[in-house]
Task: structure prediction
Amino acid sequence: MALIPFDDRDGFIWYDGKLVPWREAKLHVLSHGLHYGSSVFEGVRVYHGKIFKNTEHNERFHRSAELLDFKIPYTVAELDKACEDAVKANNIVNGYLRPVAWRGSEMMAIAAQQTTIHVAIATWEMPGYFSPEAREKGLKLTVSKWRRPAPDMAPSASKAAGLYMICTMSKHAAERAGFHDALMHDYRGLLAEATGANLFLVINGELHTPTPDCFLDGITRRTVMQLARDLGITVVERHIQPEELKNAQEAFLTGTAAEITPIGSVDDLTFTVGPVTKQLMQTYSELVRK
Result:
């Protein structure tokens, strides 16, 4: 299937306060965000024309920028409205929303305190992140050689563009080896997350998930934890050793794009797409489509 380039599409992108034609939403090659990673972003879903947890995402968008030492020049309320305007202008029914903020081109050096902060919001129709077959049978994962850095080595609580460099590298290596995605350990060798989604294990009917002290505490992650509690499922947030994977009967990933996607295997370990995972998938699907 031929790729449709993201820079050559019809529609509109909200850019620095106004909607502009899609192909005109450009930045200069010497933008600081491109060279030094001074950029943050969000991933948001649209279901039946409604943005799921719009305000919560834009609040995190602000926090991410602050952790990278810059301030987004629009309030959360203004961003909420801008996201709604972008969805409406592009007639999005079921899709994905991408707010992004970055330092501009006034300074090209490590120090860039006088750069303009730019903000853009794009949205497009998007079906499932993983194929229906992968969601039915479970993803094939392999363990990445890259680890999530310690919180005093990177702004790990920020959804910062630069933190995804090792995710891209890990996912590319996994795909070349015949897997869907990679499972990452943290700097201590504990279980962390996949390349763009949080990890959950079902152990004897309980839901166990790694403590997000060096990786992003996902909005979908927190939503699923609350859904599980509402269903009477015990949720345990803790540090998890890699060898504990063998104790799990079920495993799944959560994320805005991934939603809830079962894991079928991690290298030689296999898991069933069992009743807890299926119940949470159904409950989550009902929640986001209300």
